[in-house]
Design brief:
Distance between the termini: 33 Å
Helix content: 40-55%
Largest sheet: 9 strands, mixed
Strand content: 5-15%
Shape: elongated
C-alpha cells in the first residue's frame, strides 16, 4: 500500500503541474522521493543509470504511449529532457528493455502504471490541455476474458501484453520511409493501420475507414494516403529494412532466450494470387498448374527445435510470356537469401523442395559452405537405380556423384530411401558424407520442412492485409510487413516460454490470432 500511495502522490503532482505547463516541465518540477520501491539490481551491480531516472522515464513513456526506440530518439534530439529526468547520459532502447525485464520487479511495474494511468485518466476526465498524453482508451481494458480460452495459464494477460509490446517496439520503430519531416503522419501511424488491416483481413479503403472510426479522423490516414506512403518504400529498401529488423529481433532472442546455433534453415517460395491483367506486370508469374497468376516471394526460415523465424525475404522475378525478364536464376535467389541469413546466425543445413533441384543451386550452397538436403526429381537414371534396388531387395542405397558447373564443383551423394508415404523410394541430394546405414535416419530431417508450410499459412491467413493493387511496391510491402508481424508473434511466444522454463519448441503457447489482437489492442481502443 505504501508504494501505491507514493505512486498516486507522484501522479497527482504531475497532474497539478499540467494545468499550467507542459509534460516535460511537469517532470522537471518533481521533487518527490522514490523510496517506496527498490532497485532490483544489487549495490555491486554495474548500473550507472539512475534508478530514479529510470522510473521517471518509464512513467513518462507510459503517459505518452511511446516506444523505447521513439523515446530514445527524443532524448537524443532533446538531451535536456534526459537531464531533467536525472540521466547522466542518454540511454539506448536496450537499456530500457533490460531495466523493465530485469531491474524492475512487479511492484515497480505496478508503481509505474499506477502513476502514469492516473495522469492519463485525470487529463481526459477533466479536459486538461496536454497534447502529449495518450488517449484514455489505450489504458482502459473493457474486454472480458473468454471462459473457453485456450491461452496457457502460465502467462497472465499483462505478461503477454507487455511482452508483445516489447517485441513490437523492437520492430516498428526501425522501418523508415525517409518521408519529409513535415509529413502529416509519422511512419508509425501507417504501421498501426497496416497491423489493423492484417488483423481484420480487409483492404486499404475499408481498413482505413474502420481505423479512423476507432482512432479518430485526425489520427489515422486515409486509404489513398496510406498507399502513397507505402509506395515510398522502394523494394530494395524494404528488403534491407527487413534485414536490419531481423538482426534486432535476433539480438533480443540471444539475450532473453535459449537459442541453438548453428541452425537448420528451410528455403521455399510462396505465392500471393493475382487476378488482374498481366500486361506490363513483370513481377507477376504463372503458377504450377499453368492456369493461375501470382506474385512470388522466396523466404529462408529457421526450423527444427529452434525459434521459427523468417530470416530473409527475396522477391522472385521469373520469365513469363508477358514480360522480358531473363530466364529464371533461382540459384541467385538462394545465394542472396543465405548470405543475408548468415549475417545473423551460422547455418548448418539448408532444406529445400524439388523446385530447387538444380546443379547451380547445389553448387551455390556448397560455395556458401552450408550443408544441403534436397529431394531430387526422378529421371531415367534414378529409375534405373531404383529398379536395381528392387532386384537386389534393397530398401536403401547411396550413390556417389559430383557437381560440375561454371561456378565450381564439389562431391555429393544421392540417397535412395523409402518414401515416408510408405510407397516407393525417394531420392535426396546432399553434400554430406552419409553412408547406407545412416541414410534413412538422416533423411528424416527433411520432415522438419513441414514447418515452413504452416508458416506460410499463418503469414497469409493471420497477418497479410488484402489488396488488389497492381503496384509491386504495395504488394511487397504488404507481404514483408505480414512476415514482420509473424516474426513478432514468434518472438513474443519465445520470450514468454523463456520466462517460464527456457525451453524452445515449435508449438506456440500464444496463437497468431491472439498475438495480432494484442498488437492491435496496444494501438487501437476496443469497440
Amino acid at each position: 500500500m505504501r508504494y501505491l500511495c507514493e505512486a498516486y502522490q507522484l501522479g497527482i503532482a504531475i497532474r497539478n503541474d499540467l494545468h499550467d505547463t507542459d509534460l516535460a516541465t511537469a517532470f522537471e518540477n518533481i521533487d518527490h522521493s522514490i523510496d517506496a520501491i527498490e532497485d532490483g539490481y544489487p549495490a555491486w551491480h554495474p548500473a550507472p543509470l539512475s534508478f530514479r531516472a529510470m522510473v521517471l522515464a518509464f512513467i513518462f513513456m507510459e503517459i505518452t504511449g511511446v516506444s523505447y526506440a521513439a523515446f530514445t530518439r527524443r532524448l537524443t534530439r532533446q538531451p535536456e529532457v534526459a537531464t531533467l529526468l536525472g540521466f547522466s547520459r542518454v540511454p539506448d532502447e536496450s537499456a530500457f528493455s533490460r531495466a523493465w525485464r530485469n531491474r524492475f520487479d512487479d511492484a515497480v511495474h505496478e508503481y509505474v502504471q499506477t502513476a502514469a494511468h492516473f495522469v492519463v485518466k485525470e487529463v481526459h476526465d477533466f479536459d486538461i490541455s496536454a497534447p502529449e498524453v495518450r488517449p484514455k482508451a489505450e489504458i482502459v481494458d473493457d474486454t472480458q476474458e473468454d471462459a473457453d480460452s485456450a491461452e496457457d495459464e502460465s502467462f497472465s494477460q499483462d505478461e503477454i501484453v507487455q511482452t508483445t509490446r516489447l517485441a513490437r517496439d523492437h520492430a516498428f520503430d526501425h522501418f523508415e520511409s525517409d518521408r519529409a519531416a513535415n509529413a502529416s503522419y509519422e511512419d508509425t501511424r501507417f504501421f498501426e493501420l497496416q497491423t489493423y488491416m492484417g488483423m481484420v483481413s480487409c483492404g486499404t479503403a475499408q481498413g482505413a475507414a474502420r481505423f479512423q472510426y476507432r482512432r479518430g479522423a485526425e489520427y489515422g490516414p486515409h486509404g489513398d494516403t496510406h498507399l502513397r506512403a507505402v509506395k515510398q518504400f522502394e523494394p530494395q529498401e524494404l528488403v534491407d529494412g527487413f534485414n536490419e529488423l531481423t538482426d534486432r529481433l535476433l539480438s533480443v532472442i540471444a539475450s532473453e532466450a535459449s537459442f541453438r546455433r548453428p541452425v537448420t534453415a528451410a528455403i521455399d517460395i510462396t505465392t500471393v494470387p493475382y487476378y488482374g491483367d498481366v500486361e506490363e506486370m513483370p513481377m507477376v508469374s504463372g503458377t504450377k498448374d499453368g492456369e493461375g497468376r501470382a506474385f512470388k516471394f522466396a523466404t529462408l526460415s529457421i526450423i527444427g527445435r529452434n525459434i521459427p523465424l523468417v530470416l530473409a525475404v527475396e522477391p522472385v522475378c521469373e520469365s513469363s510470356a508477358w514480360d522480358e525478364n531473363p530466364p529464371n536464376q533461382i540459384h541467385r535467389v538462394v545465394r542472396r537469401l543465405v548470405q543475408r541469413a548468415k549475417e545473423h546466425v551460422p547455418i548448418e543445413t539448408v532444406l529445400c523442395d524439388r523446385e530447387f533441384d538444380s546443379m547451380r543451386v547445389l553448387q551455390t550452397l556448397s560455395n556458401l559452405n552450408v550443408n544441403y538436403l534436397i529431394p531430387k526429381r526422378i529421371t531415367s537414371s534414378e529409375r534405373d537405380v531404383i529398379e536395381q534396388m528392387d532386384e537386389d531387395d534393397q530398401e536403401v542405397a547411396v550413390e556417389s556423384a559430383s557437381v560440375h558447373v561454371e561456378a565450381g564443383s564439389h562431391p555429393m551423394r544421392f540417397l535412395y530411401v523409402p518414401s515416408t508415404s510408405g510407397e516407393g523410394t525417394t531420392v535426396f541430394a546432399t553434400n554430406l558424407r552419409v553412408g547406407p546405414d545412416e541414410a534413412e535416419t538422416f533423411c528424416r530431417r527433411y520432415s522438419r520442412r513441414w514447418q515452413i508450410e504452416n508458416e506460410y499459412k499463418s503469414i497469409k491467413n493471420d497477418f497479410l492485409a488484402k489488396t488488389s493493387s497492381k503496384d509491386y511496391r504495395v504488394r511487397l510491402f504488404y507481404f514483408v510487413f505480414a512476415v514482420l508481424l509473424y516474426n513478432i508473434w514468434r518472438l513474443t511466444d519465445s520470450l514468454l516460454k523463456a520466462g517460464v522454463n527456457g525451453e524452445m519448441n515449435y508449438a506456440p503457447v500464444l496463437t497468431a490470432g491472439e498475438c495480432v489482437e494484442i498488437i492491435a489492442s496496444a494501438l487501437i481502443p476496443p469497440d
